[in-house]
Design goal:
2 domains; rod-shaped; 261 residues; single chain
Length: 261
């Protein structure tokens, strides 16, 4: 019996010695230069990922505030964009939590890469918001020019009633109203192309579709801006023509020269 007890005690002591040796070996390995270098690389990558996510969340928050302050963007479009932006922020925060908990360098690299590969904040969401902001600006300026056009129509009627030949000015006025109307149409089209776009998550088909939609919207904005340039020129031509009639109230300065698309 004593012999058996001795063997049990000896086995326990051996096991304790082995576990202590293994723990010492693991401690030594974890404090090796290679392990320290790996830990430092992980820490740097986590910090880089956290900063990249923070920059994108800040940009999204600012974009949403700007969009919600726009006067001529529909409530439905605002709600749709706000929902998309909040989804992106939520997903980014979820990714941040995962990155902060990562200990494997390969996994961490994949997660950090997904910040740009999957979310496309600066490649899609921010340009999307800028297009909508430009469309809002187009609508605002077009509205201002419409007010001027209405006043010019009254003056043209007065000139005609005074016996003046306004044929050429009416032709210009027709173009003016058409350009203002088209600018509004282009603004609406630009928004419609991008308002429901979502990040591609590395899907090549969606990447191509999003790029095409952004290009179409940029083209719409460009056409709308040129419409407003022409409209301002038409306003100035009409004012000049009215001034030449020397009728009362036609000697004021142009109301369109300081209005930019």
């Amino acid at each position: 019996m004593k012999k058996i007890n001795f063997l049990i005690i000896a086995s326990l002591l051996l096991a304790l010695t082995l576990s202590t040796s293994i723990a010492s070996a693991e401690t030594a390995a974890s404090s090796s230069p290679k392990a320290k270098k790996l830990d430092a690389a992980v820490a740097r990558l986590i910090d880089r990922g956290d900063k990249a996510i923070a920059n994108r969340i800040d940009a999204l928050t600012e974009l949403n505030t700007r969009i919600q302050d726009m006067k001529l963007v529909s409530a439905d479009n605002k709600a749709s964009l706000a929902s998309q932006i909040q989804t992106q922020i939520t997903n980014l925060n979820t990714l941040k939590s995962k990155i902060d908990a990562d200990t494997d360098l390969a996994t961490l690299k994949t997660d950090v890469k997904s910040i740009t590969g999957s979310f496309r904040i600066f490649a899609l969401v921010i340009p999307q918001g800028r297009i909508i902001a430009s469309a809002d600006r187009l609508n605002t300026v077009a509205g201002d020019l419409s007010v001027v056009a209405n006043k010019l129509q009254t003056r043209l009627t007065e000139a005609q009633n005074a016996g003046k030949d306004i044929t050429s000015l009416n032709t210009i006025f027709t173009e003016l109203t058409a350009k203002i109307s088209d600018a509004k149409t282009q603004a609406t089209a630009a928004v419609s192309h991008v308002v429901n776009l979502t990040p591609d998550n590395d899907d090549a088909t969606i990447v191509a579709s999003n790029k095409d939609a952004l290009k179409l919207s940029h083209s719409d904005i460009k056409v709308g801006q040129q419409d407003l340039v022409t409209a301002r020129q038409d306003i100035n031509k009409i004012l000049k023509g009215l001034k030449a009639f020397k009728l009362p109230g036609t000697t004021g300065t142009s109301t369109a020269s300081s209005t930019n698309p």
